[in-house]
Amino acid sequence: MLAEIITIGDEILIGQIVDTNSAWMARQLNLIGVSVKQITSVSDDQEHILDALAQAEKRADIILITGGLGPTKDDITKITLAKYFGMGFRIDEGTLAIVTEIFKKFKRPLLDINIKQAEVPDGCEVILNKNGTAPCMWFNKDNKIFVSMPGVPFEMMYLMDEQILPKIKAQFKLPVIVHKTILTAGIGESFLAKEIEDIENDLPENIKLAYLPKLGQVRLRLSAKGKEEDTLRAEVELFAKNIIERIKQFVVVDDDIPLEKAILNIMKEKGLTLSTAESCTGGYIAHLITQHPGSSSVYWGGAVSYANELKESILGVREETLAGYGAVSEQTVIEMAEGAVEHFKTDYAIAVTGVAGPDGGTEDKPVGTVWIAVSNQSKTIAKVFNFSNKRIQNIERAAISALTMLLNLLKEDYLKE
Amino acid sequence: MLAEIITIGDEILIGQIVDTNSAWMARQLNLIGVSVKQITSVSDDQEHILDALAQAEKRADIILITGGLGPTKDDITKITLAKYFGMGFRIDEGTLAIVTEIFKKFKRPLLDINIKQAEVPDGCEVILNKNGTAPCMWFNKDNKIFVSMPGVPFEMMYLMDEQILPKIKAQFKLPVIVHKTILTAGIGESFLAKEIEDIENDLPENIKLAYLPKLGQVRLRLSAKGKEEDTLRAEVELFAKNIIERIKQFVVVDDDIPLEKAILNIMKEKGLTLSTAESCTGGYIAHLITQHPGSSSVYWGGAVSYANELKESILGVREETLAGYGAVSEQTVIEMAEGAVEHFKTDYAIAVTGVAGPDGGTEDKPVGTVWIAVSNQSKTIAKVFNFSNKRIQNIERAAISALTMLLNLLKEDYLKE
């Protein structure tokens, strides 16, 4: 089964935004056994959109369209779809009710331009978008479907997850696909591949192994295609078990969840608490953790101690330590981590201090030098890393490295065989 | 002048990577007056690539192609381009020298498969890629150009910056394009459009206005096309001035920078310092701020006070306040903000406490209830918001709202006319 994704709007074509929607949609489609043949970004130009729709219809069965559904003049997706399918317009009462409610909630007057949001081509099925004023429209044509969604990522994701993917699964005969993900950290893609080469070579035709590397982590994803879910699940679990056995020390979790979520799960189960003391990561570790619902049962909070004064006042780092060794040093990071455990009264703490760049480097401590420590109530482990000269990457890599160190400490403390 | 971008390879189509290359290329092209008509991602399938090339040639004058230039069997860009242009192959000596040198440097044996990297269609001009083994190939056809580049971002960026963009500027007669961006916050797209409707209607043919909304903010971008940069700049500035005058209270900054960067710029100029006290935003505001190089001259740090204990111990929120009014309350958020100013010794502070969800809501304080306060050393302003039931969006909206409140306080204190 083939799909195509068409994004409409100038934002991508002028380079104002990166098209993250399409990658997300492609991943979800692949997970249910639909391959994506082409992704096309076109401008708000009717002839061009019509042409893109016709081209996509020739190649694919499922055409997913995002964007161009706003209330302003440059948003022409609806009128173009009506033209493509030769339809007129109707007011969709469900959408009108949502639009009215949203404007009432925000105490804004409902303008004509907003009421127009509820107008849809009369032959489409409306899928209610509970998160915004743009309707989601589903068109059937000769066993093919066209679905038009808003380009706002969370509105699109919610609609895909809750409505469109289930409807696609119900309408098309898709193969059964079973996935199993193993998250690893601390080993590169090519070394991993070498470690498990024989297991990979033994995989049957219907099971594929993908390496998905990202920032010091590699996700291994086994995907089995077939007819019978239970059989596929058993097959995949067996290969996963062999892989995990082989690379045990690098396995973070055998599930498709991020590193910090795996840590939260372990700590929650063991009734443990965590705090953070962040300098160069500037709150990014706290943000990664607190993205997850329920994180408050484990994570108590922490300090973003950018200024040395705050390292002293909140974390109790000694003035002599800062003066003698500098803010980016083993001594400072240890006092930060131990200070967090002590002052925030948690079982574990993470501390990070470094030179994120692009300025602030010295010969001794060039940009990318990052000290990380993890502490429990009796032990602290500190390590220095030398990342790149790119600020954002340094922040992200430092965060992942810190979380990996915490996971290893937790494993040492609790998951030893 | 129109361009199209074609990316070749499965990584994007299976959702493994986000296509950041195309956005970057589009931005660079727009800056030199080349509009991008379409961005297309196709798989490693010869017929499909040939079709995409033919389609692009119909619409555009400049066709930029990335990807599919690796040494393995699934990389078929070169052979497909040779077929498209009816060319044979030759060995490019310059590329061969680079390949040989790279393998020597990494002490790896030079295999036949690597030597093949230096084979190119015999009618193309090779642009030497100093950062990798894949050649960059430039084809001229009937006043149109096709350029094939590696998909590795830093190789592509270097080639574009150093070679391809200058060559395009030399070969084509390009218009001058001038952009001007106005960032607004606190007003929706449709209300903005209504406010400035007459100004928009009065825009001359060569100036376009785009609305780029994102999380409670809307960017207005004026783009003028013409021949003479100074004239265009003056024209655009005039319209921008009229727009800013009309919607003054919603204007964050008349520049293409994010909200927090605008705040950092103002505070740096005035020599002011900032701290944060975050509960439900969990470090996200700190992260937004500390992404920016040089933020440490303004931002001293802050607390992520997820647990009530930390609200008391780090920020000095009184136990009676928490017990009497709850963690999500006007009283608590005021004490958090004032506590941050006092304990972290900064000129300004932001505090946020709320129910991010999906759990933790009550009848009184449903999920999405967020109290935000901003303080200077003599005044605190607190406000309650009712966002949605989505955790990540609540965090992002709360952060943007908090930053908007801070900006307004700064404007009141420093930018009054």
UniProtKB/TrEMBL annotation, chains A, B:
UniProt domain MoaB/Mog: residue ranges: 4-171
Pfam family, one: MoCF_biosynth
InterPro entries: CinA (IPR050101), CinA-like_C (IPR036653), CinA_C (IPR008136), CinA_KH (IPR041424), Competence-induced_CinA (IPR008135), MoaB/Mog-like_dom_sf (IPR036425), MoaB/Mog_dom (IPR001453)
Gene3D superfamilies in UniProt: 3.30.70.2860, CinA-like, MoaB/Mog-like domain
Protein family (similarity comment): Belongs to the CinA family.
Annotated protein name in UniProt: CinA-like protein
